[in-house]
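Per reviewer request, we include the raw input and output of the structure prediction for the construct analysed in the revised manuscript.
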Amino acid sequence: MKHIQELKDVIRQLHGAEATHVKSVPVKEQHQGKTVWDGVVEVFDLIGHPKTHRVYAWAHETEPGNLRHVTVLHIPPAVSPETAVRAAIIQEYRNNA
């Protein structure tokens, strides 16, 4: 469960709150019949965050040996693991456009 602790550390650094792991949810996101993301989203409850009680987090390799951590706060429209992945994909697309 090393990756869970890594995600907790990232959540603490980025959001200034402690996190408790709730569950792991497999998510497969498709667009126009093609898989654009397939992985496991970790769901955490937040302790002491001023805007929300939950955060979704995961890590993925951007290139061999390079790990990117992603966190998405439970704030509409990101209100589930699936919508958190969609929000992250859209944000990444906007950042690279």
